[in-house]
Design goal:
It is built from six helices and three strands; from the N terminus they run E-H-H-E-E-H-H-H-H. It has helices spanning about 10-15, 20-30, 60-80, 80-85, 105-115, 120-135; strands spanning about 1-5, 35-45, 45-55. The chain has a three-stranded antiparallel β-sheet with strand order 1-3-2. It is globular and about 45 Å long.
């Protein structure tokens, strides 16, 4: 499941702690909902990729609703500066992308893809930060 941030705002880059709140909240969701298990969570600049395992009886749109509503509530409570960045107080876009992995799907490849989300961006961002710090000296 891929959930973009409203207006594609770069909240994960600009505000510290948002990534951690989302990951911790997902672990709490697992405890509350026995049918949901987060295999991987990959956070990029303006979206989050969730690899979620569930039973077939749970509708994917229900999973999206639960994850999006609980994570946004916790982000706004624990990192209130995020709400100021987003007009109208919405964190996630209305839409999302969701797909399923069946017997023929390669779960390991998808797990690797989700896990590596944002790594390339983080490397580029760190290089830019180091260059700026060296130039300031």
């Amino acid at each position: 499941m891929v959930c973009p941030v409203k207006y594609r705002r770069l909240v994960f880059q600009d505000v510290d702690g948002v990534e951690q709140v989302i990951k911790e909240t997902c672990l709490e969701i697992e405890k509350r909902y026995d049918d949901l298990y987060f295999v991987e969570i990959g956070i990029d600049r303006d979206r989050v990729h969730f690899l979620v395992q569930s039973v077939p009886m749970v509708n994917p749109s229900q999973i999206s609703q639960v994850v999006k509503s609980i994570t946004v509530r916790e982000v706004f409570k624990k990192v209130p500066t995020v709400k100021q960045m987003l007009w109208g107080g919405r964190f996630w876009t209305i839409g999302y992308y969701i797909n399923t992995i069946g017997k023929s799907g390669n779960e390991e490849a998808i797990r690797k893809y989700v896990k590596e989300q944002g790594l390339k961006y983080q490397q580029i961002y760190r290089k830019q930060l180091n260059t700026l710090q060296l130039a300031a000296r």
